[in-house]
Amino acid sequence: MDDFRYVDGRLFCEDVAVEEIAREAGTPVYIYSKKTLERHFKVFDEAFSGMPHIVCFAMKANSNQSVVGTFAKLGGGADVVSGGELFRAMRAGVPAEKIVYAGVGKTVAEIEYALNSGILMFNIESEDELLTIDETAGRLGVKARVALRINPDVDAQTHPYISTGLKKNKFGIAIEHAMEGYRTASALSNIEVVGIHQHIGSQLTELGPFVDSLKKTVELVARLKDAGVDIKYIDVGGGLGIKYLDEDPPHPSELADALMPVLEGVGCTLIFEPGRVLVGNAGCLVTKVLYRKATEVKNFVIVDAGMNDLVRPTLYQAYHAVKPVMKKEGPEYVADVVGPICETGDFLAKDRTMTVPEGGDLLAVMSAGAYGFTMSSNYNSRPRAAEVMVSGGKFQVVRKRETYEDLVKGEALADFS
Ligand code: LLP
């Protein structure tokens, strides 16, 4: 469910015409609906209201200050994977005690930053990392709260690039070695073991993998308890999928109904790390048609957004619906929507049936609120797009379009040659 809809053939985000935003903010532009963000957060949060829990938004999906701040105001925490995300989370008003920090490659500087900030816990991905955190905490004279990220070896049945819970993936500590890992962690003098973490993948559309994985984790929590290790937090991870085309992912309440029985009696606070499900359908990317081109075998619609703005189609062959911002009558044809980047892989959509567009027409690439702007780059020296947030009848630029000067910020012409 989102708040993009047509009124008399014109696409609106809440009560604002998308065309008006494009006119003022230019294109390409990401547009987010505050109402959708708030609704998605509340639906997720309320689904688990039967148990103590914290919803830690996975900031990698969308780290714009206004987006993160919207969730923080509703009581949300953050799942961060870098010092940069930690900085953004706190700057947007997320309290440190609601921040969890995952990722296989935390640097000492990042660990120090997180320890000094007083985050809720580190989700540890390897024994080497554990030892580094212990040493760093010792040096700073603090205790580091940690959870071990367990790799349960469960097939998330999703795109291989976004599946993380299999033995062959680089994430977490194999479940068979978990007891050993916890024994090591408990013996370290600057470590306080507080939790357990799992995350098996992204864009999951079935409940089975969530349930299978959580069962394994809960069994482990019981064994740990017997061994004298008290687990206060079970971090269930993120991964709930959304509808891009014809997927039928479970509703958060269905996820809750499936997980609650598994968690009965465990007496832990739950942590969730949803990313995509909160923001994916709350945003779109609006782009302008530049040219039409036809070869003997294909029609192309060339637009002003490219793979540097939205890389998901290129990287995962992901489907994003493309809608006209202004519906019009006219002949239809089948075309690829492609960007200006000098790569064959630079496409936003393939083989779509559409009313033949004219130069200047606006198209909205839907479901682009998650892993859209955050994965964008300056490839081909293209300034990154503006971001706009809409609330009711108002809208505001929440990230300015980059300028050419921004492109060379921090660069120097070396003077020693
Ligand atoms: N927690 C951890 C530890 C994660 O690694 C991720 C995502 C999440 C939570 C949030 O997962 P979500 O609820 O958004 O599915 N760029 C890819 C997705 C990569 C996901 C990486 N990890 C895409 O565009 O599909």
Protein described:
- The chain is built from 12 helices and 21 strands.
- The protein is of the alpha/beta class and 417 residues long.
- It folds into 2 domains: 4-31 and 280-407, Lyase, Ornithine Decarboxylase, Chain A, domain 1, CATH 2.40.37.10; 34-277, TIM Barrel, CATH 3.20.20.
- The strands form 3 sheets. Strands 4, 14, 15, 16, 17, 18, 19, 20 and 21 form a 9-stranded mixed beta sheet that branches.
- The model has no long low-confidence stretch (mean pLDDT 96).
- Bound molecules: ligand LLP.
- Ligand LLP binds at residues 58, 60-61, 79, 102, 162, 164, 199, 202-203, 237-240, 273-277, 312, 316, 370-371.
Please describe the structure with a list of short key phrases separated by commas or semicolons.
single chain; 417 residues; TIM Barrel; 2 domains; nine-stranded mixed sheet; eight-stranded parallel barrel; binds ligand LLP
